[in-house]
Amino acid sequence: MAVITISRGSFSGGTLIARGLADRLGLRLVDRDVIVEKAAAYGISQEVLRSTLEKPPSFWDRVKATKYAYLTLIQAALINELRQGRAVYHGNAGHLLLRGAGHVLRTRIIAPMAFRVAMVQDRVGMSQADALAHVARMDQDRRKWTQFLYGVDWGDPALYDLVVNLEALDVGQACEVIASAAGQGCFAETPEAQAAMNDLALASRVRASLLVAPATTGIEVEVVAQGGSVSIRGRLANVQLIKNVERVARQVPGVDALDLDLFTDVEA
User: Fold this and answer.
1) Which of 41, 58, 77, 257 is 20 to 30 A off residue 132, Cα-Cα?
2) Which domain holds residue 162?
3) Same-domain pairing of 143 and 221
4) In the prediction, which pLDDT does 124 show?
5) Alpha helices in 158-230 (DSSP H)
6) 143 contact partners, CB below 8 Å, separation of at least 6
7) Predicted pLDDT at 60
8) Three-state SS for 262?
9) Which CATH number covers residue 233?
């Protein structure tokens, strides 16, 4: 069974659908709070990690390196949590953080504004006008957030395998549609799909280890894994950092071979 990611605008019914799918298909339900808790094991507080997912671009413009580091830890925790499959994840940018995994059904839920405004009014107790403004503001923030962090348009349908509109479907019917899609062979947990997920997991562990190790903290490099072979590419400040990267990366469990394509304009 595929991993299913649910992307949605606030108050669009995504959480209800995620819960319904988990019950219907017997899948684990994983949300952002679970991933933040797992990522905190790297030594960063949950409060700081949550702010990575919530602070507007105007804040992160000033600390891009820190943003990169915290997102790397969140990605490592997410991939590790979902690598065994049979899970529904509803949270920030799961479809982007899991790019490259073969058995991930990337689903987007959309709903009419009237549906969303009614949910806000029911849960928060706002007036209709305030609820409408609230939803519009959250959509705008999420669009800016995704563009800033990943350079993509949050609403681009090409980012998803399936877009489900709740204008005509109710939550139960939407779950049926998604469950049917998840059962298609292209999302099966084949050995090839599992290998791709394992490669993502190993690469993310190496990136996370490099970011939290005192000797390599703050660096930004590209890491790709295939089997137990890991390639690391990028520009670093000095030759000593290259040596540190090699030492830290070789200590990550699962790394059997290392290919470094690192360079610097400064001699040690």
Assistant:
1) 58
2) 3-187
3) no
4) 84
5) 171-182, 191-212
6) 153, 154, 155
7) 47
8) strand
9) 3.30.1340.30
The DSSP code for 168 is T
Mention every residue, 6+ apart, whose C-beta is less than 8 A from residue 236.
219, 221, 242, 245, 262, 263, 264
CATH code, 31:
3.40.50.300
Residues 6+ positions from 20 with CB-CB distance below 8 Å: 171, 172, 174, 175
Written in H, E and C, the secondary structure of 29-67 is EEEHHHHHHHHHHHCCCHHHHHHHHHCCHHHHCCCHHHH
Cα dihedral 145→138→46→48 (10° resolution)? 50
List, run by run, the mean pLDDT of 10-residue segments along the chain (268 residues). 85 93 94 87 81 60 61 86 87 77 86 93 90 89 76 85 94 96 86 88 92 87 94 92 95 95 73
Q: Which residues pair with 29 in a beta bridge?
A: 88
Residue with tokens 């959250």: 138
Do 14 and 70 have their domain in common? yes
- Residue 185's φ and ψ, nearest 5 degrees, are -60, -30
Q: Which residues have a Cβ under 8 Å from the Cβ of 185 and sit 6 or more positions away?
A: none
